[in-house]
Amino acid sequence: VLITPQRLKTLDFTSPVAESVDYYMKRADDRRITDIKDLSGLTLGVEAGSAMLSLLPQLNDMLKKMGGKLGKVVQYQDYPSAYQDLASGRLDYVVNTYLNLRDAVAKRPGVFALGQPVSKPIYIAWAMKKGNSALLSLFDEKIAAARKDGTMAKLQEKRAVAPLIRLA
User: Which of 35, 96, 104, 111 is the most exposed place for a label (fewest CB within 10 A)?
Assistant: First the structure.
Protein backbone atom coordinates (compact mmCIF):
# COMPACT_ATOMS: atom_id res chain seq x y z
CA VAL A 1 0.00 0.00 0.00
CA LEU A 2 1.22 3.51 -0.73
CA ILE A 3 2.01 5.37 2.49
CA THR A 4 0.17 8.69 2.55
CA PRO A 5 -0.39 11.21 5.34
CA GLN A 6 -4.11 10.39 5.30
CA ARG A 7 -3.49 6.65 5.67
CA LEU A 8 -0.98 7.22 8.50
CA LYS A 9 -3.86 8.60 10.59
CA THR A 10 -5.71 5.29 10.60
CA LEU A 11 -3.15 2.58 9.80
CA ASP A 12 0.30 1.47 10.90
CA PHE A 13 2.88 0.57 8.25
CA THR A 14 5.85 -1.73 8.15
CA SER A 15 9.20 -0.42 7.04
CA PRO A 16 8.95 0.40 3.32
CA VAL A 17 9.56 -2.38 0.79
CA ALA A 18 9.71 -0.27 -2.39
CA GLU A 19 9.02 3.16 -3.78
CA SER A 20 6.55 4.25 -6.41
CA VAL A 21 6.34 7.19 -8.79
CA ASP A 22 3.23 8.23 -10.70
CA TYR A 23 3.43 8.51 -14.49
CA TYR A 24 0.99 9.53 -17.15
CA MET A 25 -0.26 7.27 -19.94
CA LYS A 26 -1.67 8.58 -23.20
CA ARG A 27 -3.08 7.07 -26.38
CA ALA A 28 -0.24 5.74 -28.50
CA ASP A 29 -1.37 7.76 -31.54
CA ASP A 30 -1.83 11.08 -29.67
CA ARG A 31 0.86 13.31 -31.19
CA ARG A 32 -0.22 16.33 -29.10
CA ILE A 33 1.47 14.92 -26.00
CA THR A 34 5.23 14.53 -26.14
CA ASP A 35 6.22 16.09 -22.81
CA ILE A 36 4.72 17.02 -19.44
CA LYS A 37 4.10 20.59 -20.58
CA ASP A 38 1.73 19.24 -23.24
CA LEU A 39 -0.62 17.98 -20.50
CA SER A 40 -1.63 21.54 -19.63
CA GLY A 41 -5.39 22.02 -19.78
CA LEU A 42 -6.07 18.47 -20.99
CA THR A 43 -8.59 16.11 -19.40
CA LEU A 44 -7.12 13.44 -17.16
CA GLY A 45 -8.50 10.37 -15.46
CA VAL A 46 -7.64 9.03 -12.02
CA GLU A 47 -9.21 6.65 -9.53
CA ALA A 48 -11.48 8.32 -6.97
CA GLY A 49 -10.00 8.42 -3.48
CA SER A 50 -6.65 7.07 -4.64
CA ALA A 51 -3.19 8.15 -3.54
CA MET A 52 -2.66 9.26 -7.16
CA LEU A 53 -5.54 11.72 -6.82
CA SER A 54 -3.94 13.20 -3.70
CA LEU A 55 -0.63 13.61 -5.58
CA LEU A 56 -2.10 15.62 -8.49
CA PRO A 57 -1.03 18.93 -6.88
CA GLN A 58 2.56 17.87 -7.66
CA LEU A 59 1.68 17.63 -11.36
CA ASN A 60 -0.12 20.97 -11.17
CA ASP A 61 3.03 22.53 -9.65
CA MET A 62 5.12 21.07 -12.51
CA LEU A 63 2.72 22.49 -15.07
CA LYS A 64 2.64 25.93 -13.38
CA LYS A 65 6.45 26.13 -13.61
CA MET A 66 6.04 25.59 -17.37
CA GLY A 67 3.30 28.22 -17.69
CA GLY A 68 0.46 25.70 -17.73
CA LYS A 69 -2.20 24.29 -15.44
CA LEU A 70 -3.99 21.09 -14.61
CA GLY A 71 -7.04 20.48 -16.78
CA LYS A 72 -10.33 18.79 -15.94
CA VAL A 73 -9.93 15.83 -13.57
CA VAL A 74 -12.37 12.93 -14.06
CA GLN A 75 -12.55 10.45 -11.18
CA TYR A 76 -13.31 6.77 -11.79
CA GLN A 77 -14.36 3.91 -9.54
CA ASP A 78 -11.61 1.77 -11.07
CA TYR A 79 -8.71 2.16 -13.46
CA PRO A 80 -9.99 -0.23 -16.18
CA SER A 81 -12.88 2.22 -16.74
CA ALA A 82 -10.45 5.13 -17.01
CA TYR A 83 -8.28 3.17 -19.45
CA GLN A 84 -11.34 2.41 -21.58
CA ASP A 85 -12.26 6.10 -21.70
CA LEU A 86 -8.67 6.96 -22.61
CA ALA A 87 -8.69 4.42 -25.45
CA SER A 88 -11.99 5.80 -26.77
CA GLY A 89 -10.81 9.44 -26.63
CA ARG A 90 -12.99 10.66 -23.75
CA LEU A 91 -9.79 11.36 -21.77
CA ASP A 92 -6.45 12.75 -22.89
CA TYR A 93 -4.34 10.91 -20.30
CA VAL A 94 -4.48 8.85 -17.11
CA VAL A 95 -2.26 9.14 -14.03
CA ASN A 96 -1.34 5.99 -12.10
CA THR A 97 1.70 4.19 -10.71
CA TYR A 98 4.48 3.18 -13.07
CA LEU A 99 3.89 -0.55 -12.55
CA ASN A 100 0.18 -0.37 -13.34
CA LEU A 101 0.67 1.77 -16.42
CA ARG A 102 3.58 -0.34 -17.64
CA ASP A 103 1.31 -3.39 -17.51
CA ALA A 104 -1.51 -1.57 -19.36
CA VAL A 105 0.90 -0.52 -22.13
CA ALA A 106 2.35 -4.05 -22.37
CA LYS A 107 -1.14 -5.52 -22.77
CA ARG A 108 -2.21 -2.93 -25.37
CA PRO A 109 0.97 -1.49 -26.94
CA GLY A 110 -0.69 -0.09 -30.05
CA VAL A 111 -3.32 1.63 -27.94
CA PHE A 112 -1.41 3.14 -25.01
CA ALA A 113 1.99 4.76 -24.52
CA LEU A 114 3.75 5.43 -21.24
CA GLY A 115 4.66 9.03 -20.49
CA GLN A 116 6.95 10.60 -17.91
CA PRO A 117 6.96 10.81 -14.10
CA VAL A 118 4.46 13.31 -12.68
CA SER A 119 5.10 12.90 -8.94
CA LYS A 120 7.85 12.52 -6.42
CA PRO A 121 8.57 9.03 -5.08
CA ILE A 122 6.24 7.67 -2.42
CA TYR A 123 6.93 4.59 -0.32
CA ILE A 124 5.11 1.26 -0.40
CA ALA A 125 4.68 -0.86 2.75
CA TRP A 126 2.38 -3.42 4.33
CA ALA A 127 -0.53 -1.75 6.14
CA MET A 128 -2.16 -3.06 9.27
CA LYS A 129 -4.57 -2.13 12.01
CA LYS A 130 -3.27 0.74 14.09
CA GLY A 131 -1.87 -0.33 17.45
CA ASN A 132 -1.02 -3.95 16.61
CA SER A 133 2.62 -3.55 17.61
CA ALA A 134 3.30 -7.30 17.88
CA LEU A 135 2.26 -7.94 14.28
CA LEU A 136 4.08 -4.82 13.08
CA SER A 137 7.29 -5.97 14.79
CA LEU A 138 6.97 -9.45 13.28
CA PHE A 139 6.57 -8.04 9.77
CA ASP A 140 9.45 -5.59 10.23
CA GLU A 141 11.73 -8.42 11.44
CA LYS A 142 10.88 -10.51 8.36
CA ILE A 143 11.39 -7.54 6.03
CA ALA A 144 14.77 -6.76 7.62
CA ALA A 145 15.81 -10.40 7.24
CA ALA A 146 14.72 -10.40 3.58
CA ARG A 147 16.81 -7.29 2.96
CA LYS A 148 19.83 -8.79 4.70
CA ASP A 149 19.77 -12.15 2.87
CA GLY A 150 19.01 -10.65 -0.56
CA THR A 151 15.45 -12.00 -0.89
CA MET A 152 13.99 -8.47 -1.00
CA ALA A 153 16.23 -7.41 -3.88
CA LYS A 154 15.31 -10.57 -5.84
CA LEU A 155 11.59 -9.93 -5.30
CA GLN A 156 11.93 -6.29 -6.34
CA GLU A 157 13.80 -7.30 -9.48
CA LYS A 158 11.19 -9.94 -10.31
CA ARG A 159 8.35 -7.39 -9.97
CA ALA A 160 10.43 -4.59 -11.53
CA VAL A 161 9.75 -2.22 -8.66
CA ALA A 162 12.01 0.61 -7.65
CA PRO A 163 14.15 -0.69 -4.80
CA LEU A 164 14.74 1.45 -1.77
CA ILE A 165 18.07 2.78 -0.75
CA ARG A 166 19.32 0.07 1.56
CA LEU A 167 17.87 0.72 4.99
CA ALA A 168 19.88 -0.42 7.97
Answer: 35
